[in-house]
Amino acid sequence: MSRRGSYAQVASGTAAGAGGSLSNAVPARLGAFSQVANSGSPHATHPRLSRSIDADGHHNSMSTSLGRSVPGPSYSSQFGYLKDYGVAHDGATPAFFVPSYLRGSKHAEKLEEVHTARAIAQREYRSTNSSAAGSLSTSSSSANLHKMPSSHRGLTHEIIERAPVFVEEPIAPWPTRWNAADKFPQMEVEDDGRLAKFVGQQKSNDEAASVRTDYPMPRQCGIYYYEVTVVSKGKEGRMIGVGFSGPKVSLNRIPGWEPDSYAYHGDDGQCFSNTTSGKTYGPKFTTLDVVGCGINFRTNTAFFTKNGHFLGTAFRDLKANVPYYPTIGMKKPNETLRANFGQEPFAFDIDKMVQKEKTAIEAEITQAKEICKEELSSDETHFIHSLVRQYLAHDGYVETARAFEEEIHEEERALANTENRETPHVQTEDDLHAIHRQKIRGAILDGDIDKALKHTNAYYPKVLQDNENIYFKLRCRKFIEMICKCNELSSQCHPIPTPPSKRSTASTLNNANTVANRNSTATDEYDFEMELDEQLGVHNGAPWDNSGDDEEEDDEDDMEDKEAKWQELTNKMLQYGMELKTEFANDQRREVKRALEDTFALIAYENVRESTLYPLLEPEGRVPVAEELNSAILVSLGKSSSAALEQLVQQTEALVNELADDGGPGAFINVRRDFLQ
Amino acid sequence: MSSSTVSVSAATPTQHAFHRKWEDIKASKTDINFVVMDYLISEGYPRAAEKFAKEANIQLPLEEESIQARVEIRGAIHAGDIDTAINKINDLNPQILDTDPALHFALLRLQLIELIRRCTASVTSDITPVLNFASSQLAPRAATNAAFLRDLELTMSLLIFLPSDKLEPQLNELLRPTLRREVASKVNEAILTSMGTRGEARMRQLVRLRLWAETKAREAGKDLPPTLDIGLEPEPSNAQANRNTDDDYMVS
Predict the structure, then answer these.
(1) Which residue segment(s) compose the domain that B53 sits in?
(2) Touching check for B218 and chain A: CB below 8 Å?
(3) Torsion angles phi and psi, residue B108, rounded to 5
(4) How far apart are CA A276 and CA A206, in angstroms?
(5) Quick one: A376 and A452 in the same domain?
(6) How far is CA A625 from CA A48, A167, A521, B147, in A?
(7) Is B157 in a helix, a strand, or coil?
(8) Is residue A116 part of a domain?
């Protein structure tokens, strides 16, 4: 439990501390099927996120770079930021924004996911609190829905169902506002933390008032940039400093004059780091000027801009282990600055700069071709061929593997310029397994779970015994398929006005054809396997799968017939549901309970297609189960559960993560977006 | 890795921390299938692509008309029939070679190598065709570009040494099928680019990214295990017969 102790728990703890009223931010879900639910214990709302904390417990370079931050008022703990979102501010979730230059970056994706998860957790909290217990309100079920993938993940985890996005560790948020708790008293913060104003007495020469933002600039961004507009330079001065500083730097001096403090000053255009003597840098700036400040964490340099013009590198050799907060300081009454942390377009074309950085890195990667030659025994093409070949064989794409082999063979022959290098056509014993696996996968992808179960039991009897969780998921999936079928039928008879229109008939025909087609493609491929099909007899005998018989009946009868069939199917479905529930009723595993609960929630709808739960029924949901079963079979055959190509993708992603944590070049790469799509 | 338990797997103590990190990462099948399909299409394996679309239940990318032509061009270059290849490329789009002198030169040089190979097959053969071809086709181009000139000179020096069993590695390189393969893949890329699609297969970039990232991470002193295995070797593919047939037998 404690390992799974989730984000949500942390969140709820913080929320309880901050808000007081939120004693149960992660409610047990009460529903029609609460007997299935483990209603007492707080669920891990987002196992995905929970793992982030697991990871953190072990080692986490981010926690060393950011987490070491001195207990400053704002980023006081790794999770301190949780309370700033959501509950702390009138229960409203503040608008989430992504600065333009970070759009599409891995870090932005991660942060957005955290944000979404939090919003869902909140919605769930509200809906369970507002709707009467026992009802399945739309919003609560949509919350369930969002959690589906992750709750399933709980079951699989080690194996294949691989969701694209994941959270590895607490994600460092970017600055969003000036921090009212981290400013000198004579500074006032207004307008959602965007506006900072000097109030009160003019300070003596050495003194000033500064303010830092809520969070430091995350190194994982690679480049971080913000801008301020000088709204007013006040009556006489323009002693304004824009820059950044560490969390401990005192706030009664203008930034730039202290250790770990860096700034560009408006009165003389000089830039200051760590000392009171500046160096000539840029022009002076005054009212209505827009001043930008950015750090490139890859090179550990900082730069400024004025009114959209780049002023050059101001500082080098920034420290890698100090969290730098955007900081501004001023010292004359009425001096006012307005910040843009990315909520609005920037004056300077920072997007272009980031893009340039990305392009440079991509060029560097292309150069890796040369390393490739040295490191791999064969050249890149051969390496890739092996990868593809192994992937196709591993995942049971038999026909593809064969065609690929033939085409490669042709290619090799042309290349070899000889006719006599006849490679024997390979038909090893592996092939048979591959065919079985492909057949089982095909059945699942066609929604014919019974067929898949039969085949698996026939060829790999131990697999389902040893992998009860997969067995369970297949059973659940079957239930979902039955619900699907019922709904299909019910949508055909119910919404139609009394005289059935031609359209309905047409759609019936289409449906019937589709079903027929699907079945035939599933079997035609391997007619030499037909025997087994016949033996098993499941394929066409599945009660919910024979909608094609009654095409020729006239509409009235058709209608009645359907109505009756629908009744029958519904009964069967409910009966199956009961069986399923009975079979797994005593299962204490949270994941199992969760999955049952989610599946059963589907029954609550007359027409699921219109509900938010509909995506559960989508055929895409078959893929993870199919892949998981495939992996389990492979494992049972003594093979690795994931193909080399998959391992390569995983490794790549992990390596890039490593390179992004400290703001290195990895920060500019989004493996999935830039390389897999 | 057992899959029989439901519980979340904890890292075994002997496993390197990084290993756990990448085991934790989820790669989506959809993405991987995409990369594979992209590779089959852009590198020109139409039959495999078609089967793959069927078996993996994914959409075959819009029938891209150049694929057959690309397969033929690749075949011609691999077989050393550069004349045919150049004609086919020009049939497809004459702009391709016009706008890429380096590619054109690479093809012509390949043609020259084939010519040299033929003309030096026996000690008594006549090398006049080689000289003619070199002076009419390659020399004018080489005159404008130092790199071309170097390549041409190197290639011509084959004339002196062939036939021979012992060539300098640099010269040997010219006779290996790898060179044809490289040129063929450059041509393929150029055709794809000319059609407005992404030139290079995602798979290649991915493989490079992986190498680049590992190199960088090691440079940066990240805590990594000494080797990062992807498990390609321990599992023999069902058809490794072709694996070692490359590269070497053409030289002999």
Answers:
(1) 29-64+201-212
(2) no
(3) -65, -35
(4) 10
(5) no
(6) 19, 22, 20, 56
(7) coil
(8) yes
Contact residues, A window 633-662, toward B, CB-based 8 Å cutoff: 635, 639-659, 662
Find out whether A380 and B225 touch, Cβ atoms under 8 Å: no
Domain presence at residue A38: yes
Look at the block and give the residue holding tokens 């907060």.
A325
- A410 and A455 both lie in a single domain: no
Q: Which residues of chain B, if any, have pLDDT below 50?
A: 1-13, 234-252
Kindly state whether residues A23 and A147 are assigned to the same domain. Answer: yes
A414 touches chain B (CB under 8 A): yes
* Residue A399 to residue B79, Cβ atoms within 8 A: no
Segment 45-104 of chain B within 8 Å of chain A by CB: 45-48, 50-52, 54-57, 74-75, 78-80
* Distance from C-alpha of A377 to C-alpha of A359, rounded to nearest angstrom: 29
Which residues from B are below 8 Å from A388, CB to CB? Answer: 36, 39-40, 203
Q: At what angle do helices B202-219 and A644-661 cross, to 10 degrees?
A: 50
Rounded CA-CA distance A395/A644 in Å is 11
- Is B148 contained in some domain? no
Q: Within a domain: residue B156?
A: no
User: Is residue B86 in a domain?
Assistant: no
- Using a CB-CB distance cutoff of 8 angstroms, which residues of chain B are in contact with residue A473? none
- A303, β-bridge pairs: A294, A313
Residues A383 and A273 in one domain: no
Total tally of structural domains belonging to chain B = 1
* E strand or H helix that includes residue A304: strand A301-306
Neighbours of A611 (CB within 10 A): 21
Complex ipTM: 0.80
Same structural domain for residues A23 and A83?
Answer: yes
Q: Closest to B217 (Cβ–Cβ): which among A365, A646, A655? A: A655
Is B2 in a helix, a strand, or coil? coil
For residue range B60-94, list pLDDT tens digits in order. Answer: 776 566 788 888 898 889 888 888 899 999 988 88
Measured at the CA of A614, the angle between CA A610 and CA A615, to 5 degrees, comes to: 140
Report the pLDDT averaged over residues A19-31.
38
Select from B5, B25, B113, B229 the residue whose CB has the most chain A CBs within 10 Å, as the one to mutate to test that interface: B25
Any domain includes B158? no
In a domain? residue A202: yes
Same-domain pairing of A77 and A96: yes
Does A3 touch chain B if contact means CB atoms closer than 8 Å? yes
Please identify, among A172, A196, A231, the residue that sits at the C-terminal boundary of a domain.
Answer: A172
B13 touching A (Cβ < 8 Å): no
Unique residue bearing structure tokens 């730097």:
A249
Tell whether A662 and A628 lie within a shared domain.
no
Work out the percent of chain A whose per-residue pLDDT is above 70.
Answer: 63
Handedness of CA A412, A417, A419, A422 (dihedral sign): negative
Average pLDDT over residues A477-490: 80
B224, closest residue in chain A (CA to CA): A655
**Could you count the other beta carbons within 10 Å of the beta carbon of residue A176?**
23
Residue A21 lies inside a defined structural domain of this protein: yes
User: Does residue A666 belong to the interface with chain B, where contact is any CB pair within 8 Å?
Assistant: yes
- Cβ contacts of A394 on chain B, cutoff 8 Å: 235
CB contact under 8 A, A157 and B8: yes
Report residue A172: phi and psi, to 5°: -75, 120
pLDDT digits (tens, 9 = 90+) for B204-222: 888 888 888 888 888 888 7
Mutate which of A358, A675, A677 to test chain B, going by most B C-beta atoms within 10 A?
Answer: A675
Containing domain of residue A71, as a range?
A: 7-172
Q: Is B199 on the interface with A (CB under 8 A)?
A: no
Q: Are residues A248 and A273 in the same domain?
A: yes
Give the tokens for residue A601.
């929630």
Of A149, A172, A195, the position where a domain reaches its end is A172
Residue B210 to residue A652, Cβ atoms within 8 A: yes
How many structural domains are present in chain A? 4
CB contact under 8 Å between A380 and B204, yes or no, is: yes
